[in-house]
Amino acid sequence: MPFPLPLRPLPAPRETVLSFLSRFATMNAAEMSDFSIDLGHQIRRFLDLETAALDCLAEAAGLEPAIRDELASWTGVPAGDVRMAFRGEAFVSRALRNPVMRGCPLCLQEDAQATPGHPERLMAMRGDWLLRSVNLCCHHHHPLVPLWEVAKPAERFDSVARLRDLAPRIMAGAFDRPCSAPTDYDLWLDMRLETGEDPTWLAGHGVYAVTTICALFGMALLQHRSPEASIGDRREAEAQAAGFAVLSQGETAFRQALRDLARSSGGTQIAPRQTFGKLYVALDDYLTDAAFDPFRTMLRDCILETWPVAAGERVLGEVLPARRLHNPRTASVGGSCIASVFWWYLRSFLSVLSSVRPVCVVVFHWP
């Protein structure tokens, strides 16, 4: 087979390798899996973005090395240990690989306008749609919507085969949803992925860690403000925006927001895990991921200056060598006075207790 082939597509901005391969195959009247064999490699090697397969694809399509690398960077290259390199950043694979394929229907409609008879041939799947922390197309201000769900990667990423049936509905507006202005979070993430530029304090932190913390901390904030609110796509976007609004201001703002959230806890909702919800759980789960270390340290500092953690207890991966704080109950256990008398003493003589907070919430240093 002589290269480059005469029938070959032009890569769309942000298009993935597999979307390009699927469109390339269709232009040559072939299925993606068969076409990959014609190019000299099994489809699995393209799914894994092996260098030899990418080089062959670039030669067949007449792509310059820079264009080939751009396609790969918007796809996610396996980097071992369930990791992927995506736009120069490290992500866990599940952040980019999911049976549900999403997209912006307005982008796909725009792609198809040049060839109305075969719209699926021009509809390109963008790489940013793969990233689960992206929820909005910043070009059209349209939310990303589920397009199809397929378990097998070879079938899932054969986008033309999937779009062939969906294209009429996409062109008819069946997937259109109300548009909304992008939030600061949306714009920040879009620019960070496109150019790598970041004018905020977050420039020194990885995108995966930041987007995870934004979503989980934002959810904790929203849960505190309105505990009965439902959780859905819109709620997730609101959480990302709320978390980013704090984190983008810098470390001092984030630390203060953690303190405010901790000190607002009352009644039975007082344990760190209850107060911070999935943020606490995630930072406890990602103990071996150094990208989360700065955020873990800040949350741990907040916990140790707010709650009476006992010596020997493990907090986010570190064992506390000595108790820093007491509350009336823990102090009375170590002393001679009973809890009720001790609590009366504190309320009488310490002005900080004038708000009459629950016993288990008030903490203090005690020898």
Secondary structure class reads mainly alpha
Percent in helix? 40-55%
**Largest sheet report:** 3 strands, antiparallel
Quaternary class: single chain
Number of helices: 17
The backbone outline, from C-alpha atoms, is: elongated
Q: List unreliable stretches of 5+ residues.
A: 353-360
N-to-C series of helices and strands: HHHHHEEEEHEEEHHHHHHHHHEEHH
What's the number of structural domains?
3
Radius of gyration: 26 Å
How far the N terminus sits from the C terminus, by CA atoms, comes to: 82 Å
- Main sheet strand line-up: 1-2-3
Secondary structure: number of strands: 9
InterPro entries: TniQ
Protein name: TniQ domain-containing protein
Pfam family, one: TniQ
Organism: Qingshengfaniella alkalisoli
Layout of SSEs?
Elements (H helix, E strand, L loop, with lengths): L16 H11 L4 H7 L4 H5 L3 H11 L3 H9 L3 E2 L4 E4 L2 E4 L7 E4 L1 H8 L23 E2 L4 E2 L1 E5 L3 H4 L2 H13 L12 H12 L11 H19 L7 H15 L3 H13 L8 H5 L1 H8 L7 H12 L9 E2 L2 E2 L8 H7 L4 H11 L18
Antiparallel strand pairs: 1-2, 2-3, 4-7, 5-6, 8-9
